[in-house]
Backbone:
């Protein structure tokens, strides 16, 4: 039992964090507001050059073959930076899904994602708005006959203007025979269910990151802004708001890390038992609450400036709103928690549900 | 990161579980803050625990412990609370003074004080606060005047938990009369039956006398009863406070078991509960689990050589607010029965939720008020300026 990250895990996240500091600062973020495409190919290539796309992909398929704990801090860093590009979905959800699919089409798409930096998207039923679909080289589309991989140019992408000024949203559809089928109906259900668990875990990590960024933003402002002859941050009213937000973050983060530990290296998959699913839901709920409190607190601490377009508070507030509604939304996840609480055994010895190990009976098993 | 227990850890859990099953009293003991009989029953339980070498598993073997790491301490606590074992009457000793002595005490002090602490022979009270030194603890005025090989302790301490019936107390005294604030304070141990000690019980919100006022008039104690160097008391007490707010005082299993009882209460009253209660119960479970996960993460960090400082304040706020929320949820589920004391014929066994609720209300106050904790978080973790 060791609930601490390895040095390698933290170092990898530090590298990503440093790159995000360089490529995704406030000015860089703001320069893309109102652009025709919110997806910055240049930044995308620089981030992918760090090797993050393949963290969760099997080694035989060209990835690093690592698990959730290796990616969760990277996802948190992306949230902290308010990164517009959906790197977390791409590397955390879509590429692992493709690597679990049979057939050459999925394999080729995966290779393009890993080697050429192609952005691949997934239109998951639980996240109906596909982020930056106009930049996607291909989109995985669920349909009655399973999953199809459809080249971006062959899809119909309808923009759905949303509150987050840094991310364009689209609904994506395609004619029934477009693209290539990469999974049948039964496999498709399993793949989508696993994608949703991964998505929930790593979205939770993004939320924790952006919550911390909001607190840090507000702390910096509270030290600078003077009223009544002293920094506003010297006042207990300000201190206590920010301390409460930090408490929320502190007790969301370990839940997210524990949920990430349920995502094993491939070909293992997030477990489908009730206890594991409840932990993942718990992570998304706790992270969502932390993000909501932290962004609202940042708004309050900034006063009228917080309500202005000029400071970055609104970027985080809007991203938090966007992310908390994904992967089913809070009520869906509260129900999953309640289901576990009311029907599975409770007690301190049930704190750590175990990830599913690779077995011969795993339906998605592939030969190495 | 590996969130699986090792085979050794699982075997340890089984060993604790087996011992608890064979030894935990069938009936809950009467409160240790109510009657002498209740207090002594808890003292006997401490002796029994210690006979099984379960008094304080993290302590070195030389002092009756097992020298175990914090993960095993957590496993022990989980089994302890899951078995419904009694509250620890000597928690001031074993969780606060004990670790302090292990870190700062002399060999002689450890040998003198730890074994009788572990077996409940000497129950400890904390004597820090004073009428004019509460949240502003550095305003301590009680003094220790050097007289040869002794100190003469004089002053007025208050809110001393367990002090009505305890045997010993550890207190903060001003050893340098010219000093101010955090300087010139020393941590000194004194027996509560010594000449010059007068104790006055204070009735709590629940009517019991869980704390006392202590009036000290030239209480003579040997210089060897000082822990750490003269004038180092503040630094040492803050380390103790770290244990208190941080890991030791409120182990996660306590709240996980409260959450479990709350779920059972909800199930028993399902017909009169609605979605609001369902959500509150699920929320209680999530909070208890989040606290446990956080403590496991902290324990892992400490085992790897890290420290716990102002982070302890995050814990204290979280568990105290969680405890109140859980009890409020229980009272909401109980509806009209919520106000009944355990002695009411119509109460059934619901009365202890009311006891627990009242006790939970103290949580944001003791061990440093949550308001002070928020200042600590803001200033030391977030770096905001002092007022």
Residues:
């Amino acid at each position: 039992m060791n609930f601490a990250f390895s040095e390698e895990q933290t170092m990898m996240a530090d590298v990503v964090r440093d790159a995000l500091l360089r490529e995704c600062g406030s000015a860089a973020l703001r320069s893309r507001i109102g652009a025709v495409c919110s997806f910055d190919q240049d930044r995308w290539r620089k981030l992918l050059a760090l090797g993050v796309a393949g963290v969760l992909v099997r080694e035989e398929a060209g990835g690093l073959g690592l698990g959730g704990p290796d990616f969760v801090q990277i996802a948190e860093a992306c949230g902290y930076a308010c990164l517009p590009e959906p790197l977390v979905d791409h590397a955390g959800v879509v590429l692992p899904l493709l690597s679990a699919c049979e057939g050459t089409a999925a394999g080729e798409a995966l290779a393009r994602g890993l080697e050429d930096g192609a952005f691949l998207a997934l239109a998951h039923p639980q996240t109906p708005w596909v982020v930056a679909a106009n930049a996607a080289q291909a989109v995985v589309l669920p349909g009655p006959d399973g999953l199809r991989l459809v080249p971006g140019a062959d899809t119909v992408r309808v923009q759905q203007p949303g509150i987050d000024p840094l991310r364009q949203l689209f609904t994506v559809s395609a004619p029934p025979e477009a693209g290539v089928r990469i999974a049948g109906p039964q496999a498709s259900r399993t793949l989508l269910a696993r994608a949703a668990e991964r998505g929930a875990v790593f979205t939770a990590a993004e939320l924790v990151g952006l919550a911390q960024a909001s607190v840090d933003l507000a702390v910096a402002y509270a030290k600078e802004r003077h009223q009544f002859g002293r920094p506003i941050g010297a006042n207990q009213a300000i201190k206590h708001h920010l301390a409460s937000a930090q408490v929320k973050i502190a007790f969301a983060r370990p839940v997210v890390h524990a949920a990430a530990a349920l995502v094993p290296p491939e070909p293992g998959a997030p477990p489908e038992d009730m206890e594991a699913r409840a932990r993942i839901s718990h992570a998304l709920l706790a992270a969502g609450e932390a993000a909501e409190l932290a962004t609202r607190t940042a708004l309050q601490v900034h006063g009228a400036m917080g309500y202005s377009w000029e400071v970055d508070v609104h970027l985080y507030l809007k991203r938090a709103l966007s992310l908390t509604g994904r992967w089913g939304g809070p009520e869906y996840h509260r129900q999953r928690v309640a289901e576990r609480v009311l029907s599975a055994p409770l007690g301190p010895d049930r704190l750590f549900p175990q990830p599913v190990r690779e077995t011969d009976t795993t339906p998605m098993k592939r030969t190495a | 990161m590996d969130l699986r227990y090792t085979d050794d850890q699982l075997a340890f859990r089984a060993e604790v579980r087996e011992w608890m099953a064979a030894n935990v009293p069938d009936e809950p003991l009467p409160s240790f803050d109510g009657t002498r009989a209740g207090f002594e029953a808890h003292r006997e339980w401490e002796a029994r625990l210690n006979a099984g070498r379960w008094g304080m598993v993290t302590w070195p073997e030389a002092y009756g412990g097992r020298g175990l790491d914090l993960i095993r301490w957590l496993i022990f606590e989980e089994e302890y609370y899951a078995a419904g074992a009694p509250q620890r009457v000597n928690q001031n000793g074993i969780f606060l003074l004990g670790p302090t002595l292990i870190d700062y005490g002399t060999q002689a002090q450890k040998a003198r004080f730890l074994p009788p602490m572990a077996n409940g022979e000497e129950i400890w009270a904390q004597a820090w606060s004073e009428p004019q030194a509460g949240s502003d603890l550095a305003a301590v005025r009680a003094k220790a005047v050097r007289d040869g090989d002794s100190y003469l302790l004089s002053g007025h301490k208050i809110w001393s938990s367990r002090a009505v019936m305890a045997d010993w107390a550890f207190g903060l005294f001003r050893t340098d009369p010219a000093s101010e604030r955090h300087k010139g304070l020393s941590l000194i141990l004194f027996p509560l039956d010594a000449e010059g000690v007068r104790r006055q019980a204070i009735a709590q919100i629940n009517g019991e006398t869980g704390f006392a006022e202590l009036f000290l008039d030239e209480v003579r104690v040997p210089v060897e009863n000082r822990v750490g160097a003269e004038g180092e008391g503040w630094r040492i007490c803050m380390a103790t406070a770290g244990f208190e707010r941080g890991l030791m005082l409120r182990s996660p299993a306590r709240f996980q078991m409260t959450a479990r009882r709350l779920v059972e209460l909800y199930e028993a009253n399902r017909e009169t509960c609605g979605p609001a209660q369902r959500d509150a119960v699920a929320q209680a479970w999530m909070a208890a689990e989040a606290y446990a996960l956080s403590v496991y993460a902290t324990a892992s960090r400490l085992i790897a050589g890290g420290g716990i400082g102002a982070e302890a304040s995050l814990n204290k706020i979280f568990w105290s607010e969680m405890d109140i929320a859980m009890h409020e949820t229980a009272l909401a589920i109980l509806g009209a029965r919520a106000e009944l004391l355990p002695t009411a014929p119509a109460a059934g066994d619901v009365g202890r939720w009311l006891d627990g609720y009242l006790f939970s209300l103290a949580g944001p106050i003791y061990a440093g008020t949550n308001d002070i904790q928020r200042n600590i978080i803001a200033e030391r973790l977030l770096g905001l300026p002092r007022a």
Q: What stands out?
A: The radius of gyration of chain A is 20 Å. The mean pLDDT of chain A is 94. The longest helix of chain A spans residues 185-224. The first strand of chain A starts at residue 120 and ends at 122.
